[in-house]
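Hi Y.,

Following your request, here is the sequence exactly as I used it, all 104 residues.
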Amino acid sequence: FRVMDYKGQRLSEYIYSILTILFGGVAWILGYVKGDFQVTFYGWAAGLALALLLCIPDWPMYNRNPVTWLEEVGKRNKVKSVGAGSTKTNKPKKSKKESETKSS
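Below is the corresponding structure, written out as C-alpha cells. Let me know if you'd prefer a different format.
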C-alpha cells in the first residue's frame, strides 16, 4: 500500500490548479466568442475531469520522495526517566539566612 509523499501532494495540487485555470480560461474565452455558456461549462468540466484523473489516483510520479519515519517507541533503546515515582518537589532551596531567621 503506497501513500503519496509530501512533494507528490504539492505536485498534484500544482497540476490540478494549472489544469483547472487553463481549461477554465480557454473555455470562458470560447464561450464568450460563441455567446454560449454551455461551451464554457463543458470546457471547464472537461478540464476538471482531466485534472481529477491525473491528481486523485496515487500515480508513481507522486511517490518519488518517500517519507522516512522514526522507529516505533518499543524498538528504540528504553531510557529511564529521571525522578519517575519520586515524591520530591521542585521547591527552591532556602538560604542559610532564611532558615536561621525562621528557627529563631
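The radius of gyration is 32 Å.

Thanks again,
Q.
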